[in-house]
Amino acid sequence: MTKILSQEEIDSLLTSVSTGGEGDSRIQKVKRKVSLYDFKRPNLISKEQMRLLDNIHEGLARNFGVYLSAQLRMIVDINLLAIDQIMYSEFVMSIVSPGAIYVGEVSSPHSKFVLEVSPQLVVFIVERLFGGKGHLIPVVRPISVIEQRIMNRVVERISFELSKNWEPLRKFDTEVNRFESNPEFVQIVSASEPVIVVSMEATIHNNTSMMNICYPYRWISSILSSPENQEKVLFGTNDGTKKEKHVILNSVANTPMDLRAVLGTGQMSVAEFMNLSKGDVMLLDGKTNAGIPLFAENHQMGTGSVGQINQNNAIRISNVITGAQSHEKQRIKYKIK
Q: Which domains occur in the chain, in start order?
């Protein structure tokens, strides 16, 4: 329900606008939080799916960076910058002509993707592979046929890493079969269809250049929305390492828990309970010659007997019960909740 301000509150707000003070915080409370939403471009990828795509392409960037560092004999850092959902026409318009555009195909489910590499990075890689010092040219020029063929080996490696990092979700083969320098000649989907663009940044000697991978949204959706991948989307794909399991086991082993020994149980009415006094005796259903049930956090873990050690109460465990079914039966028997 909207609060109606009194005349005194209105005057106080107007006064605080010019003088500043408590009125500013009151005005902020009156303002409502508004988040922008474009109905023409709804967010088709959920946060869980976006997190999964981040993990896939972070591995791709890391592995390809290691490969380039070995091939170029220098340190090459490739980092994942962003994963955006845009229209395919916007992606094509963002590519500078002449460019280095590779069109590839995915086997299952069949689709096409676009790998766009900065021409400056292509020239640098080719020059280093031929034994040169390598430098990022300031002016963008077309990629020659010889440079295209030399670069094919590097692009094939990207294609291999692409299928390898997608393997936890779907096994497929990738193949790059076409090179284009003019983005207008690259048409894998209609201009108005949404696509997912993965942007990566390659850093070499404090110089940066860009790499982009463009997937059709329909292909991404067909993989992420499959029933076998829903659990991976919600709970992650990576299994715990031995070190992580060791840390968890140590944490669990050092976790304190309550241990109780139940001598017996009995029933009485509320009136009998209210009339209890010092020295009264309660009749329990346990037997002196039977084992006393031992509970750990309301789960029976065995039976034993009570006694004393060094004037301290003690419990000797005579039997250990294993299995969740046995625990549940004992909980029902002794009405432990």
A: 47-235 (3.40.1550.10), 256-269+284-334 (2.30.330.10)
